[in-house]
Amino acid sequence: MIIERLSREHRNIETLLAVLERELEVFDRGDRPDYEVIRAIISYFELYPELYHHPQEDLVFAKLKLRDPAAAAKIGNLTREHQKGAERLRRVAQAVDGVLADREILRQNVDNIVRDFIESERRHIMMEDRDFFPAALKALEPQDWTEIASASINHDDPLFSEAAEETFDELRARILQLEQEAEAERH
What we know:
mainly alpha; Four Helix Bundle (Hemerythrin (Met), subunit A); elongated
């Protein structure tokens, strides 16, 4: 089921946001966070939500606009929200690159940029879970879901998608493993 998968992806994203937040706390204390973990999380966000998660949500949203324009209007401009998230992520990537290149950047600025990204993502996910997904489940017809599912597969070789899924699963597992190792070293 498409919404179940999108919800599961939200939980994965929340886990990564929590890891990013922990690394930010290390940075804020003046210690060196695990930049490998941070970089891996940024890569994940640059790829997965952009290529898979958001396009799928956009397809669902387009159907919602047809079936229940009022519900869609209440949710707002989802595509624009996704673009703003991508812009915030680019700022995070630039800030982290700046720190790693020893450019003069105020710690507070880095903190603000990363925190803004984390909080905005959390707000966005909360809104989708609370408003968007239930509205879609209520308004969309069975044939809508079929069309969304086929549109999602058509633009991609399903073999490639599965391979990509595995790559992302490995990346996710690697990020969490790196984080556990970093935690262990800190204690």
